[in-house]
Amino acid sequence: MTRLAEAGRDHYRTRMPRWLYHPVLAGSDLREVETLLEDLRLNTVCRSAKCPNRMECFSRRTATFMILGGICTRNCAFCGVPKGVPQPLDPEEPERVARAAAALKLSHVVVTSVTRDDLPDGGASHFAATAQQLRERLPGATIELLVPDFRGDAEALMLVLEERPEVLNHNLETVKELYSRVRPGADYRRSLRLLELARTYDPGVRTKSGVMVGLGETREQLRRLFRDLAAVGCDMLTIGQYLRPGREQLEVERFLSPEEFAELKEEAEEAGIPAVASAPLVRSSYRARELMENKGKEGRKVVDRESDQGGRKC
Length: 314
What we know:
Layout: E1 2-4, H1 9-12, E2 21-23, H2 28-39, E3 43-44, H3 45-48, H4 54-59, E4 64-67, H5 93-103, E5 108-113, H6 124-137, E6 142-146, H7 154-161, E7 167-169, H8 179-182, H9 188-201, E8 206-213, H10 219-231, E9 236-241, H11 258-271, E10 275-278, H12 288-298
Parallel strand pairs: 4-5, 5-6, 6-7, 7-8, 8-9, 9-10
Antiparallel strand pairs: 1-2, 3-4
């Protein structure tokens, strides 16, 4: 049995290529994860952003937790997460995330968030509190934090890095030339600078980013993006097909073939990015542990998180 990738299905039923059809995975684990998230009143980017892989991930007993509430303060033209005026932070949310991760027996935990420009630190302290709770309940797990740009606030970023996540992830999302249309509230150079600062402050952290294709970018623009990421020491990159989550978001300009994704992977690696996942349904946190382990084996030297006590600088 197959299903159409859910994002954009009402607009692209006749245009979606065959490689965007994939099997439905369901069962007791899927129901257990959904029930757990509902009982603990937790958001996931899987559901909020209408990720096409969420059924598979839930069935594999994984989820990407989304903190800082469910309302974003920015209005990115590609994103299906609700926008508007957010509610005050829930101080118990970090503990509930850790409870859910422990119940799922996760070995690698991915935490992301909406963007909260209304908060003085952009939500950095909430990220830090969540990482603290995860360390207490799952001391053997690795942690990946997929953070917003904190409006370029280096102190906010350092507050997050003080908790020593194994992976610091921040998505560029698209090429520089499309930012004004796709990410009007963001800045391409500011996002690159965040990744560069992360490696400067903590040389042991593995940095990661993600981009979507099919929004009208050119191949040369993508090559420049790959070189820019390599120049700031980005360790891991995910490349996936943009799928329109609803009628209010940008339309898909083009569907790239699996062969083109394979070519993009080669070009990104040639540019100097050690670990690259590139396929139509790849998303930033999809099979995140596998990509992290691939980088650890084949990429730049990985600093031991326990023995590395120095080397940081602001």
